[in-house]
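Hi support team,

I submitted a single chain yesterday and got back a structure, but I'm not sure I'm reading the token output correctly. Could someone confirm the output below corresponds to the sequence I sent? I've pasted both exactly as they appear in my results page.

Thanks,
R.
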Amino acid sequence: MKQSLRSLVLCLAVAVVLCEVARTAEAVTCSPVELSPCLGPIRSGSAPSGTCCQKLREQRPCLCGYIKNPALRTYVTSPNARKLASACGVPTPQC
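Hi R., thanks for writing in. Yes, this is the structure output for that exact sequence:
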């Protein structure tokens, strides 16, 4: 009986964690257009706005996908993009 109860509790705990992970993944819609407030800093190296940093943090789970896209890669890997990420406190993705 004790073993069955432990197994049930463990299964429930795993289910809760998986549901939370799924909810987090659903919350992010990968859209490079969301990063449009960051175009100025990416192009010129200027200081990012609060909106830019917020959008960059939201899109963080998507950055590796953008790096894999040849049309978007330079916007994520350029020296100004790295400077922007650092200014916003977003670590450079390790893909």
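A quick pointer for reading it: Residues 1-29 form one domain. Let us know if anything else looks off.

Best,
Support desk
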